[in-house]
Amino acid sequence: MSGQRAAAEPYTTRFETEVTAIDGRTVWLETSYFYGESGGQPADRGTIGDVAVEDVQHVDGEQVHVLAEEPSFRTGQRVLCSIDWSFRMYCMRAHTASHVLYGAGRRLLDDLGYGGFDISDEKVRVDLETSTEIDDETLIELNELVNRAVWESRPVSWEDVPVAEARERDEIAFNEATEEGAFQKGRVRIVTIGSADDNGNGGRPNGATNGDAGEPWDVAACGGTHVRNTREVGPVTVLDRSNPGEGLTRVELAVGPRAIDRRTAEKRTAYGAKRALGVAIEDVSDELARLADERDDLAADLAERERALVAERLANAEPIDRGGETWLTARVGDLPTDTVSDVVRERADAIAADGDEAEAETEAIVVAVGGGDDGPPFAVVGASGKRSAAAILDDLTDEFGGGGGGSETIAQGGGFDATAEELLDALE
């Protein structure tokens, strides 16, 4: 069997063997069922002769065990080895779950390719190459298909085949860069999650509805440890997705207790939304969409009212003629600076346009002073003509402190050591 002995016999967790070499805390054994870190799956935990195993690596076809401390046993002695069954089983479940996810991806995603995976104590991540955008709805569909495949109790098996034969089989997920541990001496280890027809329950257990019951769920080159049946995987929850690199989408999932914790959090959130909205749980999404539309309409209406308020206060201000320049200054109150800036620019352009129609050389400068009574004011300067809005703002900051910036036509600043009225007095 190619790959590691642990992958061939994943349910073996206690064994006795001879110590063949020791170098400090590093130990070699005649036979080892410890899984060495490989392909995204972490090393097994456990003990060798009552000494904790800190790390295991698969080097040149054999396991290299790193202990937490130098052992008291010697080369040539036989030792009892114990693998942490809880962590081994977690990795078996998690690794199999990643294959189940890939099988779900085969049914939902276009141009699917395998980019690698990783198991941590908290979650499993699977990197997928696909031209399909994996949005929230796709995550929900992946989650549903994964859990259906687990429920259908599909058999999981592994075998060695010649590499050349595997390359000719299009159904095999094949990535030599990420699954180096699956290859040995011209052969490759293939893991198959079988069809629902093979589960011994007539192919459609307890109401399963998959239309591909007679087809294998997933076939992949893999050197990791796996359970014998998908039902052993237990609870799985797809968590989220991200983009770790060009052409890749990373899908994260949780297995076991952490999957249950996530489901509990999601359930609590859904019930909370149901209570707050006063609708049935199946109507929560529609009600949230309605409220979001209502919020957007209110926000648009508020923005329009704010623009109208700024425009009104500028319109009520008395223009001042300063040697060919028309100055307009006004206090506009505690309104968003972006809204004030838009209206100031429009007002400056309008004043200049009115002057052009009268065949006059009109320079328009509009200054709006905003902010509340409890904090320092801000100023927005608009200029249409030869004068620079940024230069006018600089004059204000030189006199009253603060800061800001802008362009020849529009500038804004704040943090002045002055009240709004003092700023207006200085401008007039």
Quickly give the CATH architecture of the largest domain: 2-Layer Sandwich
- Global mean pLDDT: 90
Lateral strand order in the biggest sheet: 1-2-5-4-3-6
Please tell me how large the radius of gyration is.
35 Å
Low-pLDDT ranges: 202-209, 356-360
Number of strands: 21
CATH superfamily of the largest domain: Threonyl-trna Synthetase, Chain A, domain 2
User: What name does the CATH topology of the largest domain carry?
Assistant: Threonyl-tRNA Synthetase, Chain A, domain 2
Helix coverage percent of residues? 25-40%
Biggest sheet features: 6 strands, antiparallel, barrel
Q: CATH class of the largest domain, anyone? A: Alpha Beta
- Compute the separation of the termini in Å: 90 Å
Shape: elongated
Q: Structural class from helices and strands?
A: alpha+beta
In N-to-C order, the SSE pattern is: HEEEEEEHEEHEHEEEEEEHHEEHEEHEEH
